[in-house]
Amino acid sequence: MQAEPKSELKNRIFIAIVVLTNAAGNVLLAVGMKQMPDFDNTSVMGYTASLFTNLWIFFGIALLVVWMVAQLSMFTWADLTYVLPVTAGGYVLTAILGKFFLGETVSIARWLGIALISFGVVLVSETPPHDTGDDQ
Amino acid sequence: MKWVWVLVTVLSGTIGDLVSAKGMSLHGELDDFRPRGLARIMRYIVTHPLVAGGIFCNAIAFFSFMALLSVSDLSFAVPVTASSYILKTVCAKWYLNERITWRRWAGVVMVAIGIVLISV
Predict the structure, then answer these.
(1) Which SS3 state, helix, strand or coil, does residue A2 take?
(2) What is the DSSP letter of A130?
(3) What is the rounded average pLDDT of the residues A31-48?
(4) Nearest residue in chain B measured CA to CA from A106
(5) Mean pLDDT of A71-78
């Protein structure tokens, strides 16, 4: 059975939500974790308290909850082997964000990786989202 | 020790994604984005045993990945766990009955190799 989702627009919006909330959530978590006290030098209570009161970590986790719900929602109309590669654009986004906002240098190997992931995403996004072998 | 965390991360992440995708596919296509519809899908997510169980497995994968990061570098942890893309694709064929056309296979392999190149 090959079936298009009822709305191609809905599919695209959800891909964007999954990619953006995952990349942004990870960046916020990373920033928050860098502000955390050294684990070995604090009590468990103190560490947990600073974990729950750090706004970066709070919003990072909130975004990752949205990411999870959006990805699960996509599974109601799309295959796992469609959703996973198509939403891998987050890796590219994170690398590019790192270059422009954190001043990281992007090596030739890294550019090659970005190009490969992008090709992979395009290749899979041109397959039908839902494609089970029922008609075979 | 780090290979134990690699194994736990890859296996629990794979089981988590397969099982929660199965659970969600049993729900009809989500099409109601009014507050009531969103509340209904949220309730389905937290109460359906396959979906909730899948989330639990992914939580284990998340924390074991954190444990892996504490004993290895990001440049080891990220490319090694990218192998889960291949494992998930193989398993989706028999567990979820998905048809993996050559386009999908090529895309998945490109993404996995690309992740290795980006992180090493």
Answers:
(1) strand
(2) E
(3) 79
(4) B118
(5) 96
